[in-house]
Amino acid sequence: MKRTGIHIVLVFIALVAINFVASKLYKRFDLTSDKRYTLSKTTENIVKNLQETAFVNVYLEGDFPAEFKRLQIETKQHLEELSAINSNIKFRFIDPIDDAESLIKEGLEPSRLSVQEGGKVSEAVIFPWATIEYKDKKENISLLASQTTGSQEEQLQNSIQNLEYAFSDAIHKVTSETKQKIAILKGNGELEDIYLAGFLLKLRQYYTLAPFTLDSVNVHPQKTLEQLTDYNLTIIAKPTEKFSEAEKFTLDQYITNGGKTLWLIDNVTAELDSLMQSGQSVVINKDLNLTDQLFS
Asked: Looking at the domain 181-295, which fold is it?
């Protein structure tokens, strides 16, 4: 009887010890064939870069459709996993209803969802958002993937699969001390900014953008090159006018000195109006004088 009592005590102590260790460690076992729930090395490195406490508020608490409980649970598990990598991540779940007006002012727009219960369809409003605050920076994190087609269930599944990117992207933004610089080349008939609006808007979240011309290259070639080398990347978006030898030489030297270039080239001219009206169009090759620059 005494031995049985000792065994019970030992089992109890073991359970307490296991529970204590489990509370300190978190490991999510991914049994999916494509390892969709396994964090990438990139995400791990981004999370490890947090040197001070990052506060995450998740507005998935309160009364909302049952199917979106999955998003709440998956978000919590994902944050637990991130917190296990770096204890500087602190998070809490908040009911947004009492503070809805101020959240909307901060850009956290609510989503309206169709809910079917008991054969009736009703509308529910949720705030599928999180925020992260780090030092003097703050970022909003959308937890509901935007979708124009497909079912609500598909949208939910896409949102769950997007959680890693959503949080790692936000952490990267708040931990980046300086932004790299990108030059948008002008002067050779490149696309106007209005045609690149969405592209440039997205880039501005991560980089400093500025227009740059090679107009002075004939008069001040060395100065032009020095100014261009201040940029980490140069984007040449659909030029339509021929590049001079001096311009090509400057770009070549820029690349030689470590600069990167993104060429968005359309090497032919074709009228869309003609194609839509008759189903045919005359295609004319553009002579941009870039063959030796790009293919030699």
From this structure: Rossmann fold (3.40.50)
Domain ranges in the chain are 27-175, 181-295
Identify the three-state secondary structure at position 8. Answer: helix
Q: How far apart are CA 186 and CA 151, in angstroms?
A: 44
Max CA separation in the chain (angstroms): 101
Nearest to 227 by CA among 259, 189, 188, 264: 259
Share of the chain above pLDDT 70, in %: 81
Architecture of domain 27-175: 3-Layer(aba) Sandwich (3.40)
Tokens for 72? Answer: 């709440």
| Under-50 pLDDT residues of the chain | 21-26, 29-31, 34-35
pLDDT at site 274: 65
Rounded-to-10 torsion of CA 152, 157, 162, 163: 100
> How far is it, in rounded angstroms, from Cα 31 to Cα 199?
37
pLDDT of residue 2: 53
C-alpha span between 34 and 42 (Å, rounded): 17
What pLDDT was estimated at residue 62?
84
d(CA 89, CA 85): 9
Q: What is the per-residue pLDDT for 3?
A: 57
66 in helix, strand or coil? Answer: helix
CA distance 14 to 193: 66
φ and ψ of 182, to 5 deg: -125, 130
pLDDT at residue 156, rounded to an integer: 87
Alpha carbons 296 and 286: distance in angstroms, whole number: 18
Q: Which of 70, 254, 240, 76 is nearest to 155 (CA)?
A: 70
Q: What is the C-alpha R_g of the chain?
A: 27
Give the β-pairing of 54-58 and 89-93.
parallel
